[in-house]
Amino acid sequence: MSTFQELGLNDDLLHAITDLGFEKPSEVQEKAIPILLNSETDLVALAQTGTGKTAAFGFPMLAKIDVNSRTTQGLILSPTRELCLQITNEMKQYGKYCKGLNVVAIYGGSSITDQAREVKRGAQIIVATPGRMKDMISRRLVDISKIQYSVLDEADEMLNMGFKEDITDILSHTPEDKNTWLFSATMPREVARIAKKFMDNPQEITVGNKNESTSNVTHEYYLVNSRDRYQALKRLADANPDIFSVVFCRTKRDTQKVAENLIEDGYSAGALHGDLSQNQRDLVMQSFRKNQIQMLVATDVAARGIDVDDITHVINYQLPDEIETYTHRSGRTGRAGKNGISMVIVSKSEVRKIKSIERIIKREFEKKEVPDGMEICEVQLMSLANKIHNTEVNHEIDKYLTSINEMFEETSKEELIKKFFSVEFTRFYNYYQKSKNLNVAEGSRDREGGREGGRDFGGNSNSTRYFINVGEKDGFDWMKLKDFLKDQLQLGRDDVFKVEVKESFSFFNTENETKDKVLAFFTDFKHEGRFVNVEVSENRGGGRRNDRRGGGGRRDDKRGGGRRSDDRKGGSGSRSDRRRSNEGGGSSRRSDSDSGGGKFAGARRSRR
Ligand code: ADP
Ligand code: MG
Asked: Model-level pTM?
């Protein structure tokens, strides 16, 4: 490991580096700086975000330009205004002892004449976003015909954002013999093409593993029972009212199902997978780009190349089969200099995969708890309060206010605030007050798995075990019976579990919340001409034969004590009908206890 001094930087720069507190060069700096200082060459450098790329091109550029000339000699293109300002700021700090240096930022959304004036004063280095740069060139407000060094920073992002033509156009105004330095986190084909087109035999450096994850993405996992996946997903969404996310599922079917369920539960969600027509996919992507969809549920294949910035969360509803796929998924967030969170909903049987992913992406996951109902109520309430606080008054409302004001003449501000927020809070509260804890302790035994395993259903379990009078002789095995029950009861993939098929009868479990529904459904149900009878079993899933029907198999009717799925129906209904319009046709009679969550999730449809 060398020092900055050994890399050949001059005293002015070394002095600034000391001030900045950089002790030693980062890897990309160590590799790039000597090359750029000591030769006139084009360069392609691949390194992840946060590895110090700015200084890797910034120091050499500062060392090489002539501060005594007022000619623009260096041009740095970067994808966003934020990055542009960030780079400008860094360059000014790096060059603070370079007397006469003038670094100017050019970006949209700010006065073009002010920027032109600054350039005119003599900018040796211009840091620009492509759009504004092109604009300034066409208005002849900048002259880049004498630049010697051009940098394409975050080249992959610039291409993702559709700046290819602008870049081509801009570079056509620069001298042939300049040097081009391209910095990028990844090397998609587009970037390679750009490199080929604009660069002359570039030297190449790569830092780190190409699968390594970017540093501005944090990785979290949530350990739940497999059948609680969907509830966990909704809680995560509810706990992040401004979420703008891609939810990854493994199969097209799950993708469609999860999206349908979310829509039905009132979330602004959409599905993206290969069974949709191109037109349908375009429409979904359009809505997503416009932020009209907060949760895009997608397969890996369909989501390839999603170039949407600002994605706040990637949610791995299921882990991918290939660990590398995880890198691609999580790379959908934390783009263009923003921070992102990649969440994994993981069951006990997959939790070891987290360790393998950590090894490959070289980042640690944080184990987090699925938020409980009251936390979510609080988050939602504060989010609402914030929204109200920041709302601009629409004066169309004025004409209606007289009668409303009259109504509240006697109400104090405190009182009014209380009442106003109670409208929302009661809804959240009613829905969530009885919600269960979805978290599974890491050391606990795995309670899932379809067939045998269930010896750990203690009396304190949240699930109910049933006896059903069909079995192998009716053509069922555990998978077929599980599918049959799921279809008949219109339950989700993980809602029927511990299915155990015997010759002429079987057992299965559902959540306690589903008990009434299951029992009601099978009170008068015929399958292939025969009455199918379902009763609550005393068998806890341990498979001891004699406990199957107790004395005569009375249905132990403790319904009053069980947690009932319709607890939530209370005051939470009003919103759902408004959202029917975007319903994906899912008509399932859902029973899971969390399904009311969307009732208020829908209230936060618009993100900005
Ligand atoms: P990248 O462009 O690769 O994403 P940046 O150039 O923005 O990374 O650098 C990331 C952060 O690291 C910045 O805050 C920068 O000041 C700091 N930094 C850069 N080089 C060094 C170094 N050699 N030692 C310590 N900090 C550094
Ligand atoms: Mg950078």
From this structure: 0.46
